[in-house]
Design a protein that fits this description.
With about 210 residues, this protein is an all-alpha fold. The protein has 2 domains: about 5-20 and about 140-210; about 25-135, Orthogonal Bundle (Endonuclease III, domain 1), CATH 1.10.340. The chain is about 60% helix and about 0% strand. It has helices at about 5-15, 30-40, 45-55, 65-70, 70-80, 85-100, 105-110, 115, 125-135, 145-150, 160-170, 175-195. Helix 1 (about 5-15) packs across helix 12 (about 175-195) and helix 3 crosses helix 5 (about 70-80). The two termini are about 20 Å apart. The structure holds a DNA duplex (13 and 12 nucleotides).
DNA sequence: CGCCAGGGCCATA
DNA sequence: TATGGCCATGGC
């Protein structure tokens, strides 16, 4: 059983996911995806949605608007997503960084993963989510769930995002659309089966998983 | 009421 | 390098 077999099982069980950039059947602007990637750090998506709505109402859904926004107004808009002071600051720094490219097109074309990671508050998962979901780069997004699940499935024993990311990018030679679906499916699987009382009996990966509960 | 979410930073040892 | 505390709101 390889990584594509796992993908097919998850897709068969959960169906296609309505994650970015196709949530609610409309295509959000790239900056909306970028803001969501920051706002969702350790945060339920329903709270992120509230914050994005407030950002929209306040006119903060563009890099320039956020880069020039007053800190208090930005914090107030972002508040429902939690950690709101940090997140307002991170969004502001990130927006100023985007602005420094001169245009969003230039940012999309030439920004590197290392540059994103060098920004305070942008770690591996946030950077990779931006690169994949907002910029369409073929980057496999790794999160804590991915490490747990694929370790239990007996793939490898690494514990670093970097090693797992390279593994998937060499193992899964597909397009960015599949990468988007795959990460979303992994998260859905974790929410459904690997939280609190594990529901391994109905898990589509149970037969291959080392964890028995 | 307590738990925790589509993380990441920083201090400490 | 590896844990642990911290950030904070809203849903259940």
């Amino acid at each position: 059983m390889d990584a594509m077999d796992i993908y097919r099982r998850l897709l068969n069980h959960f169906g296609k996911q309505d994650w970015w950039p196709v949530e609610h059947g409309f295509r959000p602007r790239e900056f909306e995806i970028i803001a969501g990637a920051v706002l969702t750090q350790n945060t339920n998506w329903s709270n992120v949605r509230k914050a994005l709505k407030r950002m929209e109402r306040a006119g903060f859904l563009s890099p320039r608007a956020v880069a020039e926004a007053g800190s208090k107004q930005l914090e107030e808009a972002v508040r429902p997503s939690g950690f709101y002071r940090q997140k307002a600051e991170r969004l502001k720094m990130l927006s100023q960084f985007i602005e420094s490219f001169g245009s969003f097109g230039e940012f999309r074309k030439s920004v590197t993963r290392e540059e994103l990671l060098s920004l305070k508050g942008i770690g591996p998962e946030t950077a990779d989510s931006i690169l994949l979901y907002a910029l369409g780069r073929r980057v496999f997004v790794i999160d804590a769930y991915t490490l747990r699940i694929f370790s239990r499935l007996g793939f490898r024993q690494w514990d670093s995002y970097e090693e797992w990311r390279k593994f998937f990018e060499n193992e899964v030679l597909e397009d960015t659309g599949l990468y988007m679906q795959y990460h979303a499916l992994i998260v859905e699987h974790a929410k459904m089966f690997c939280r609190k009382k594990p529901l391994c009996s109905s898990c589509p990966l149970a037969d291959a998983c080392a964890r028995k509960a």
